[in-house]
Specification:
The protein is α+β, with helices and mostly antiparallel strands and 588 residues long. Helix content is 45%, strand content 15%. The model is unreliable at 59-74, 284-302, 476-482 and 573-588 (pLDDT under 50). Residues 15-64 form a coiled coil.
């Protein structure tokens, strides 16, 4: 029995070993399959990269055709450079600025080794996409930008086509500018400061095609931003060229440096040159003080915007500024609005708006103004480059309700009590709060105290009749003569806004008048339109009351409120809630 048991046990042991070997074999098969899959994935990735490289080469070949005049198209970047840039171009040598404590750039020895290693790996056979990717990785890995002491934030924009459907490799923005990548076009174009293009090492970055491409990008930015300077950098790993475009009266001015080598004669990396390059991209103050090529101020119009906010998208553009929707980084549901002025010319306009809005919110009617004027939550206290308001508003696309008409009337009355004339009451400046649906009056840039004389710029369609008549005789400097600020200025504008919202026909007519190109013809068209409206039976009495209230508004408040009730509330009895609301307005 013992022998048979032993044999049985041996048999079982052998069977178990066989099973183990089978399992091991299966594991090896699985491992082999995994390796095959990994190899296939690598092949796919390599093919995809190669495809991208080939597509990039084809794109470059299309944009930069051979240099023979016969093969160049009229719209090529090379032709653009020769005919549009070269006549206004200044070329200069470049001397690196002396920057104190420049070794602090590196932080530790690892970064220095990585930077030198990056440039050593940039060989003539290395594809352009790999050079771009490696440089971006270097910036991100070592937090070169996007840090509190940096002037810049940067974004990889090689696949973001915000420059007339063209993409630039890297875009730099003033630090604290956080952009939502899902809605980039308008915001990127409005706020970019410096654009960088990386070429393959075998590309001669000093040729007309590549420089034409960069200057084309700079001109697109310059035309959209209303800035006076924008900057560009072209690099191929061996050398760099700095560029600048500047507005100068009717014709722009362009600047470029000769090629600046990043390597010594023996092809080794020039450590000091690389340090200075990084210093420029990081934007140290010492660089600004020593950069003769860019002028006394290296980066024009530095803007430290709101780092705790994300810029979602552009909301609109006006005469003096553009506005952006913001969301809080900690709570994207919390929305606010950034108003950014175009240039130094409008500093006084922004300063005026800040002062008046803050004054109204601290006045005896502050509780009332909380529900109809935006609150300023932050602003640039030195240069008044931006104002941040507390909530997002929307346009009124339908007819005004009677309640909204009374709200706007009350705003005009309260401003009058504070001796403030808004001077720009028009449909674009009357908006609704998304949450509460309350009516808000915005844009106090050209508002002023009664009795003061302050210039005004903008549309005059809704201005009082006497202003339009004055313009008929003094036309010439459209927008600089408007110094009227009497009591019925806003009141007449208010009535004209009611005409706009009264019916679709009026809206379409007024919108059509705004498209007239000749300003004197436009003024005549405004006068003719409003003369017809004044003789219209529906609005005649309301316009007459406004004229009577020119210097005695308190005497005619109730009469105007009654006429509003008749026109827009079907003349309901005084016991109705809406008319009671009108009564409350007048008591205030």
């Amino acid at each position: 029995m013992t022998d048979s048991n032993d044999k049985e046990l041996e048999k079982i042991r052998l069977l178990l070993q066989l099973e183990d070997k089978k399992v091991q074999l299966e594991d090896k098969k699985v491992q082999l399959e995994d390796k095959k899959v990994q190899l296939e994935d690598k092949k796919v990735q390599q093919l995809q990269l190669q495809l991208q490289i080939e597509e990039k080469k084809l794109e470059r070949a299309r944009l930069h055709p051979p240099s023979s005049s016969a093969s160049l198209s009229a719209t090529s970047y090379a032709d653009y450079y020769r005919f549009s840039i070269l006549p206004y171009l200044t070329t200069c040598d470049f001397q690196y600025p002396i920057v104190k404590d420049i070794d602090k750039l590196y932080g530790d020895k690892k970064f220095k080794r990585r930077l030198i290693g990056f440039l050593r790996n940039v060989t003539e056979s290395k594809p352009e996409l790999e050079v771009q990717y490696d440089f971006q990785t270097l910036l991100i890995r070592n937090e070169l930008c996007n840090t509190p002491d940096s002037l810049f934030s940067f974004f990889d924009t090689h696949s973001i086509y915000y420059l007339n459907r063209k993409a630039v490799d890297i875009s730099f923005f003033f630090n604290g500018t956080n952009l939502n990548r899902s809605s980039f076009d308008d915001a990127y174009l409005e706020l970019v400061v410096l654009v960088c293009e990386f070429k393959a090492p075998d590309v001669n970055i000093g040729v007309e095609g590549d420089l034409g491409q960069m200057f084309k990008y700079l001109n697109v930015i310059l035309s959209e931003q209303y800035r006076t300077h924008v900057y560009g950098l072209v690099c191929n790993g061996d050398s760099i060229v700095y560029t600048k475009a500047e507005k100068y009266f009717r014709e722009p001015k362009y600047y470029k440096t000769n090629k600046i080598s990043l390597r010594r004669p023996d092809k080794s990396v020039d450590d000091e040159a690389v340090k200075q390059l990084i210093c420029l991209l990081k934007g140290y103050d010492d660089v600004e003080k020593n950069m003769s090529f860019y002028g006394t101020s290296f980066y024009y119009n530095r803007q430290s915007l709101l780092p705790r906010h994300l810029i979602e998208r552009r909301l609109g553009r006006g005469l003096t500024s553009r506005t952006f929707l913001l969301s809080d980084n900690n709570d994207t549901r919390c929305k606010s609005v950034l108003k950014l002025r175009y240039g130094q010319d409008f500093k006084s306009v922004f300063q005026n708006e800040v002062n008046l809005v803050l004054r109204l919110h601290s006045s005896s009617s502050s509780k009332f103004f909380e529900s109809c004027l935006l609150k300023i939550i932050e602003y640039d206290k030195i240069d008044y480059r931006f104002i941040c308001f507390d909530k997002q508003l929307i346009e009124i696309k339908e007819q005004l309700t009677y309640k909204q008409i009374l709200s706007l009337f009350q705003i005009v009355i309260e401003l009058n009590k504070q001796r403030i004339v808004h001077r720009d009451i028009r449909p674009n400046n009357i908006l609704l709060c998304i949450q509460t649906k309350d009516l808000y009056l915005v844009d106090f840039g050209f508002a002023c105290e009664m009795g003061s004389y302050v210039s005004f710029a903008g549309t005059v369609c809704y201005a009082p009749a006497h202003m339009l008549l004055n313009l008929r005789h003094r036309f010439g400097h459209y927008g600089s003569l408007f110094q009227y600020n009497d009591e019925n200025y806003d009141l007449e504008s208010f009535v004209k806004v009611l005409v706009f919202y009264d019916n679709v026909e009026n809206r379409e007519k007024l919108q059509k008048l705004d498209t007239i190109s000749r300003q004197d013809d436009k003024i005549e068209a405004y006068i003719s339109f409003w003369d017809k409206i004044r003789s219209n039976e529906k609005f005649q009495k309301l316009f007459d009351l406004v004229q009577l209230a020119a210097h005695h508004l308190t005497m005619y408040e109730q009469n105007i409120a009654n006429e509003l009730n008749t026109l827009f509330n079907n003349g309901q009895s005084a016991s109705s809630s809406n008319v009671q609301t009108a009564g409350k307005i007048l008591k205030n």
